[in-house]
Amino acid sequence: MTALSDNLQPLSMTQLLDRAIRLYRSNFLIFVGIVALAQIPATAVNMIGLWLAPAPETINMNPTSVTEMWLQIFESSGFVNNGWLWLGRLVTLLLVQLATAAMTKAVAENYLGHKIGLFEAYQKIGRSGVALLIATFLGIFLIMGLAIWWIIVPCIGWLSGLGMIFFLSLVILPLVAPIIVLEHRSAGQAIQRAWDLGRRRFWWLIGFMLLLGLFGQIVVTGPAFLSVFAVESIVGSGINTTTSSLIQQVIMLLLRLIYLPLQLSCVTLLYFDIRVRTEGFDLAVLALSDQVDSETLRVTAPPLEKNVVPRWEEIGYFSLITIAFVVVYIALLLIFLVAALGFSGF
Questions:
Q1: Nearest partner of 197 among 214, 218, 216, 174, judged by Cα
Q2: Is 23 helix (H, G, I), strand (E, B) or coil?
Q3: First-to-last CA distance in the chain?
Q4: Which of 95, 217, 313, 325 is a plausible cystine mate for 221, CB 3.0–4.6 Å?
Q5: What is the C-alpha separation between 278 and 182, in angstroms, rounded?
Q6: Which residues contact 269 (CB under 8 A, 6 or more apart)?
Q7: In whole angstroms, how far apart are CA 63 and each of 36, 59, 66, 79, 169?
Q8: What does residue 23 show for φ and ψ, rounded to 5 degrees?
Q9: Nearest C-alpha neighbor of 319 from the set 182, 150, 192
Q10: Reduced to 3 states, what is the DSSP secondary structure of residue 346?
Q11: What distance in Å separates the CA atoms of residue 13 and residue 212, rounded to the nearest whole number?
Q12: Distance between CA 31 and CA 118 in Å, rounded?
């Protein structure tokens, strides 16, 4: 139990990232394999869709109405005349949820000291993949509802709506996966439970998820952009839109295979950390026998809190986030305006 008790202790942001990276390195092939089983078929279906319905090379730059503009954007995506693209999105959505469930299970078991294989991880998720898929749609509806709150409700809605959407997307929804997989909650219960956990360390969780997002931009987005630019520079400007899109799909697949396991490892260990800090999960584990596995998380999970309505203090937090977005937006506009005036002066 010594190694396990060393793992189950409060961690700083850097310690949490370090633990996740070490866990990822020691299980590299298994973790990448879990993601690959989902990402490769999904990417293949999307690539077939792009090949069957190439994107148009040119778009009318002078639409006569807003409706025509949106129709052109929709047609340029290929969804109008190609069911493969719709199928690709649906297949991707389902397979990603299955991979997320399997990765969460594998990370939890390995972190608790139980080695688990690639196929065994998928076998042990049960109906978690379906529950995650339902939770994804519920999350979309929640975001839409909060967007209506933000736009329509005067004063409180205008101030807090954007902050609520930001916190839901950045913190709450990522925590749903470990809750569904490890606590066996339903989709609705998982979202409520994620809110129960997330509100306990509001600003710390925002900081960590922003740090993880920045790390993802450095690891995935930056290399993807540079790789596509390098390939197009080597091949030449004669490359068509479809070929460029296929190249991007392959590059993004390779980068996702490397980064997604690390991202999911971080989120799962973050779930452990919240429970250790706020629910005494480490003490509950010490009180049990040596046979501690991911089922212990379900057994020791407390009931859902009854008060799900944000407190006024939390409304103030959401308002601060909204104000911060407005300030950053205005600052960027001023920077662009000053830059444009500077260039026009030469």
A1: 174
A2: helix
A3: 70
A4: 217
A5: 17
A6: 11, 16, 19, 20, 23, 107, 111
A7: 42, 9, 7, 20, 33
A8: -65, -40
A9: 150
A10: coil
A11: 10
A12: 7
CA 28 to the chain's CA centroid:
20
- Does an H or E element contain 5, and which? helix 2-7
Residue entry with tokens 């004063």: 155
Q: Is the pTM of this model over 0.85?
A: no
Amino acid identity at 1: M
Rg (CA), the chain: 23
User: 132 with 177: CB under 8 angstroms?
Assistant: yes
Q: In the structure encoding, which two tokens stand for residue 337, read together?
A: 């305006």
Query: Coil, helix or strand for 283?
Result: helix
> Residue 233 in contact with residue 273, Cβ under 8 Å?
no
Cα–Cα distance measured from residue 73 to residue 75, given in angstroms and rounded to the nearest whole number:
6
- Residues 118, 123: Cα–Cα separation, whole Å: 9
Domain ranges of the chain: 2-344
* Residues 326-333, mean pLDDT to the nearest whole number: 90
Q: Are 111 and 21 in contact (CB under 8 A)?
A: no
Question: In which band, very low, low, confident or very high, does the pLDDT at 164 lie, cut at 50, 70 and 90?
Answer: very high
Check residue 337 and report its DSSP letter.
H
> Where residue 64 falls among pLDDT bands split at 50, 70, 90?
very low
Q: What is the mean pLDDT of residues 320-327?
A: 94
Which residue from 43, 60, 187, 194 is spatially nearest to 129, judged by alpha carbons?
187
Inter-residue contact 146 to 168 (CB < 8 Å) = yes
CA angle in degrees (0–180, nearest 5) for 319-167-329: 55
**Nearest Cα to Cα of residue 168 among 189, 213, 199:** 199
Q: 239 phi and psi, to 5 degrees?
A: -65, 135
